[in-house]
Design brief:
alpha/beta; Rossmann fold; 4-stranded parallel β-sheet; 8 helices; 4 strands; globular; VapC_family; PIN-like_dom_sf; RNA nuclease activity; toxin-antitoxin system
Length: about 140
């Protein structure tokens, strides 16, 4: 069983050297290496977009996206096959209840459905997880 649901914010903090939560991200990624993680279906797009934005803002050298994403691809991270099916029922309910984007609510929905902790540096998502009785990894 995976250790937790992994939010894009943790993956980006692990890869981008100037992120505030880099040390905590390294600890969480070590847990992923040991136990694995699961992510919603849109995760790769969200992480890829974060790296692309970092390139455009010159936070990382141009052309490093493939190498950075390759590091993530080597980790035992499972893509949830049910994200799209849940996007029109459970996730919108959670998004409305907690003022989240549908993207963030998909992480929470997955954690609730699988009975897993959530690893995220997003304060709103962490508060929503606690309100839903979902453990927050690293707490």
């Amino acid at each position: 069983m995976p250790a937790f649901v992994l939010d894009a914010s943790v993956a980006l903090a692990w890869m981008l050297p100037d992120e505030a939560h880099a040390a905590e991200a390294r600890r969480l990624i070590e847990a992923v290496v040991e136990e694995g993680a699961v992510v919603p279906g849109h995760w790769r797009l969200e992480v890829g977009n974060g790296v692309l934005m970092a390139e455009r803002r010159r936070r990382v050298p141009q052309g490093t996206m493939a190498a950075m994403l390759g590091r993530l691809a080597a980790l035992p991270i499972a893509l949830d096959p049910e994200t799209a099916a849940r996007a029109w029922d459970a996730a919108p309910t959670l998004a409305r209840r907690h003022g989240l984007s549908l993207y963030d609510a998909a992480y929470l929905e997955l954690a609730v459905r699988e009975g897993l902790a959530l690893a995220s540096f997003d304060a709103s998502l962490r508060r929503a997880a606690m309100a839903e009785q979902v453990p927050v990894a690293g707490e």
